[in-house]
Design goal:
alpha+beta; 283 residues
């Protein structure tokens, strides 16, 4: 099932000259709905606005109403919701006859593969980005941590991982710094401490990442954010990825080496249950 809602503009849904198509200048958010309720929508809209500012994209009004229309049209339920905002044709002012920024909300079913992957755990490979992440984070024109639709390199990384017999990749900086997966945040546990790469490395500020930072102490877990390498990950008692659409996904192998005993770990399950409870139980 796919359901699309578009802000009314009085013109075709997407102009062929929209800069989203010709130059990849658009921003987006992907999140889950639980029982028809978008989880952490305010946080996603705030990140969308920050991404839009980074590429000088004026956001249209009415995005919350657009989301509500898409969810209602999909009859609620547990879905993947994507909100995409484009720049429009080059030089077109908002509201002009030439057309300006456009916005779309798209609801789709959750992939059936998620639960099977969660049950068995993911196999990952390390892939270098051949960049210095600290220098990249200090260069705003490189759009570090900005969520644009220009995901071609991310998808290429996932294809490369699958060609090597893995499920996904961990991107690594020029100095061996662990960064993130192409569409998720990396975590691992040593004892009662969770480790995750620092946002100072220019990685995406994940919405689920922020939720887990709050949930971890309630489960007796400390969190250490910093600069880590594969040698740090090799000492893990368990590891997992987090994202808004996939929630928590256990990691059982990296570059052919097992993480601990090669099975999903207990803290991952506890955190996932706490996340589900937060998302689905009314407060």
């Amino acid at each position: 099932m796919t359901v699309l809602a578009v802000l009314s503009t009085g013109r075709p849904a997407l102009d062929p000259l929209d800069l989203a198509l010709v130059r990849g200048e658009a921003v987006f958010e992907a999140l889950r709905t639980y029982g028809g309720h978008p989880f952490r929508l305010d946080a996603h809209l705030a990140r969308l606005a920050a991404s839009a500012r980074a590429i000088e994209l004026p956001l249209a009004d009415g995005l919350e109403d657009l989301v509500a229309r898409a969810v209602d049209a999909a009859s609620g339920g547990d879905l993947v919701l994507r909100l995409i905002c484009t720049k429009g044709p080059e030089g077109a002012a908002p509201g002009s006859a030439e057309g300006g920024p456009a916005a779309f909300a798209i609801c789709t079913d959750l992939p059936a593969s998620f639960e099977e992957e969660r049950r068995r755990g993911l196999r990952l490979v390390l892939l270098t980005t051949a960049t210095d992440p600290l220098l990249r984070a200090a260069a705003p024109w490189l759009l570090a941590g900005v969520k644009t639709i220009s995901y071609a390199t991310n998808m290429a990384a996932q294809r490369t991982a699958r060609s090597r017999g893995a499920d996904d990749a961990i991107l690594v900086g020029l100095g061996g710094e662990l960064l993130e997966a192409p569409t998720a945040t990396l975590w691992w546990r040593v004892g009662n401490t969770l480790h995750t790469p620092s946002l100072d490395l220019g990685i995406l500020a994940g919405i689920t990442r922020a939720v887990l930072l709050d949930l971890a102490p309630t489960l007796g877990l400390k969190v250490l954010e910093g600069v880590f390498t594969a040698e740090d990950l090799a000492t893990a008692d368990e590891a997992f990825l987090s994202s808004s659409t996939r929630e928590l996904m256990p990691v059982v192998e990296v570059d052919g080496a097992l993480i601990a005993d090669g099975h999903p770990g207990p803290a991952t399950g506890d955190l996932h249950s706490a996340l589900r409870h937060l998302a689905t139980v009314p407060t």
